[in-house]
Amino acid sequence: PFLRLLEAQLQDQRREHEEEVEALKNEVDAMKEELEKQQQAFLQTLQLSPEAQVEFGLQQEITRLTNENLDLKELLEKLEKNEKKLKKQLKIYMKKVQDFEASQAAVPAERRHHERNMQVAVQRKEKDFQGMLEYYKEDEPLLIRNLIT
From the record, what ranges are coiled-coil (predicted)? Predict the structure, then answer.
């Protein structure tokens, strides 16, 4: 069983390695093609007059900048969509927080009143007796905190 596990892991690693090698070969081939295109364009520009070489260079730069601008525009649109989505989510979460705070504000007011009555009652009872104490399950953390302090 251990050898089979090691063999399976080795096969997985070999498969991953082969996939990586194949991807790198494809990348190298693509780079070779790009290099050949650039060399051909360079040789063509060398055959042109100096004025034509400058104009060709400017056209190449304009094309490059146009492509770069299109890529940036696409990225900007993507980021704007993401921003709108995040703003919507933020509004939803803010509404949930406000609703939660409103519900918590109502409960503590009642609990604070109940706590004051309970503290007063406990203070009086502490002097009178020791023993069992009755409390609501939801008041347990408050009771523990008061006992500690």
Answer: 3-103
pLDDT tens, residue by residue, 56-105: 889 989 999 999 999 999 999 999 999 999 999 999 999 999 888 888 87
CA atoms of 25 and 29, how far apart (whole Å): 6
CA distance 33 to 46: 20
| DSSP string for the chain | -HHHHHHHHHHHHHHHHHHHHHHHHHHHHHHHHHHHHHHHHHHHHHHS-HHHHHHHHHHHHHHHHHHHHHHHHHHHHHHHHHHHHHHHHHHHHHHHHHHHHHHHHHHHHHHHHHHHHHHHHHHHHHHH--S-----GGGHHHHHHHHH-
User: Against a cut of 0.70, is the pTM above it?
Assistant: no
* CA distances (Å), origin 118, targets 77, 126, 131: 60, 12, 16
Task: Check: CB of residue 142 under 8 Å from CB of residue 111.
Answer: yes
Burial class (CB in 10 A: 0-12, 13-18, 19+), 122: middle
